[in-house]
Amino acid sequence: MLSQASSVNRVYWLIVAPAIVMLVLFYFVPLGQVLLTSVTDPKPGLGNYALLFTSAAIHKTLLTTVRIAAITTGLALVLGYAVAYAMRAATSQRQRLMLFCVLLPFWISVLVRSFAWLTILGPQGPINAGLMGLGLVDEPIALSRNETGVLIAMVHVMLPYAILTLYANMRGIDVGLVSAARSLGASRFQAFRMVFLPLTRPGLIGAASLVFILSLGFYVTPAILGGGKVMMVAQYTAFQINETMRWGLGTMLAAALMIAVLGTLWALSRVIDVKRLFSA
Amino acid sequence: MSNGTPEPLVRFINVRKSYDGKADAVRALNLDVETGEFLTLLGPSGSGKTTTLTMLAGFEQPTEGRIFVGGADVTRVPVEKRGIGMVFQNYALFPNMTVGENIAFPLTVRRTPRAEIAAKVARALSMVRLDGLADRRPQQLSGGQQQRVAVARALVFEPRLVLLDEPLGALDRQLREQMQYELKHLHARLGVTMVYVTHDQIEAMTMSDRVAVFSTGQLRQVAPPRLLYEAPESLFVAQFLGESNTLPGTIARLSGSECSVTLADGTTVIATAVGACAAGTAVNVAVRPEKMVLGAAAAACANKVQATLLEVSFLGDQLRLRLGAFGREDIVVKLANGAGQETLDPGAVLTIGWHAGDCRALAS
């Protein structure tokens, strides 16, 4: 029995071995190199990390990153909550149609979607043309190549993540509870605020952390819609490595970003069961 | 109106409900619920009993007709404005609140002062014998305890009407019987009007002042349990509630409430005519198995017939006999297993008899 169990074990390891080798070679080794570079280039020590506290340019970038990620999270949560709520209440046939529409953007590359937004929000784009046609504005308003454009496009990219997380959570809530609240004298709003909303708390926390974490590392969308004026950490990192060749600074920023993400997840795990959150 | 109150607490007038515009879930419903009574809506699933309760609660609106509560038309009044307490089958306790907060909920949404809430919650908890459990989460309680919390929550704001939708369905038999007793006790003590939905006829008979029997969207009969059992007005009620021997036949002669019915095999039986009957009407004669007697007692009955004993089942406190008579082989007689009960063997020819008053000719 024992030898049989251990031979089964060996087969099991044999099967997963290629995947582990891949992961180590192409993920952990480069990651280690990144971390190593951040403390060795241009000279050994924590000099690069000291810049986090001293460099005004980095402060500005970090502030921009956190601000954009936070606003994106807030907007995606509010809009996503409304969509998920509507999906939950819809008939199963309409539910499937809505789910399809939510998933549709996933099939289109973020790059394509970003350029599409650039066209839509541009000075000659349909939105400005419409506004001017209606006589609401005299000249095109700046919707792209600034933070507004970045936010619009990022919320669009993040919305499906927020919707799906919230929807999974809401589907697990017994609708009978809201009915029960109403029958006991609660108005529609009271039933929502006192019963439904508290029960969606795990979904809200999950969606918020997922969107916030993904937003922190966003590169393509801010790079294209920001028009070089909105600098988030990922783009700043790429700029250090590609343009100024300051590998130490670039890798330090990448490492700092990673630590920030892991830190967020850790802080989250103190409050709720993270594993259950993302498998929901 | 049976207990002399001037106006019923609840009144359904010509209520019809259709969910899809084609089939009626409930139709032509006229029903009064008297103040202070315990009324049970009884019927198989899909009979319309739950739809009726749902409309009274306000979750659904009637397609036609009107509903009055305490003399006021509530047909279009939203759920939360009706002030009706409700207990659900799956308890529907709020998992994000403690037991105390759950019970306080109806008071909290009504903006009752905090001190008053605390006092009322404490009283409600002791009423359902859950003192000291206010700070627990509902998930930490047993099924029976959870249902008690749900009952306390439905009663805490002192509604004049409480609706219970199969509240004991999820409990095991022993607990269910205990809860039946407790609910009945609460009802007697508080004097609150209760409308109870169940598909369990024993539960309906045990607890109710009156039972309303539903089938296929129609109210068949409303009566106190005993009357419903002894004097069913339709074949459905006679068969749904308890057991009945039903013999198809035609009314030959009608005199007052008595009629003589010619059965399929040509025999004539004397029965109580129910409803609008005339000579020539096709009827089903219904006799309860325990109303049939054997031997000497049968000789004194208006109806008697020679029957062959086919099968005897011994059920402890009673004997269940299957006999052949009237050209049928499904006549059931129940005998209480009393002192000196003699042994009966299949094949014996016996005289069975019953009184005309225990036998009802129901139009089919």
Task: Give the helix/strand layout.
The complex is a heterodimer of chains A (280) and B (364).
Chain A: H1 2-40, H2 47-54, H3 56-89, H4 92-103, H5 110-121, H6 126-133, H7 147-171, H8 175-183, H9 188-199, H10 201-216, H11 220-225, H12 233-242, H13 247-271, H14 274-279
Helix pairs in contact in A: 1-13, 2-13, 3-7, 3-10, 5-7, 7-10, 8-9, 12-13
Chain B: E1 10-17, E2 26-33, E3 38-42, H1 49-57, E4 64-69, E5 72-73, E6 85-87, H2 99-108, H3 114-127, H4 143-155, E7 161-165, H5 173-190, E8 193-198, H6 201-207, E9 210-215, E10 218-223, H7 225-230, H8 235-240, E11 245-255, E12 258-263, E13 268-273, E14 282-287, E15 293-294, H9 296-299, E16 303-314, E17 318-325, E18 328-336, E19 349-354, E20 359-363
Parallel strand pairs in B: 3-8, 3-9, 6-7, 7-8, 13-20
Antiparallel strand pairs in B: 1-2, 1-4, 4-5, 9-10, 11-12, 11-14, 12-13, 14-20, 15-19, 16-17, 16-19, 17-18
What does this structure look like?
- The complex is a heterodimer of chains A (280) and B (364).
- Chain A has 280 residues and is mostly helical.
- Helix content of chain A is 79%, strand content 0%.
- Chain A has 14 helices and no strands.
- Chain B is elongated and about 75 Å long.
- The model of chain B has no long low-confidence stretch (mean pLDDT 90).
- Chain B starts with 9 loop residues before the first strand and ends with a strand.
- Chain B has helices spanning 49-57, 99-108, 114-127, 143-155, 173-190, 201-207, 225-230, 235-240, 296-299; strands at residues 10-17, 26-33, 38-42, 64-69, 72-73, 85-87, 161-165, 193-198, 210-215, 218-223, 245-255, 258-263, 268-273, 282-287, 293-294, 303-314, 318-325, 328-336, 349-354, 359-363.
- In chain B, strands 6-7-8-3-9-10 form a six-stranded mixed β-sheet, sandwiched between helices. Chain B has a five-stranded mixed beta barrel with strand order 11-12-13-20-14.
- By secondary structure, chain B is α+β, with helices and mostly antiparallel strands.
- The chains are: A mainly alpha (280), B alpha+beta (364).
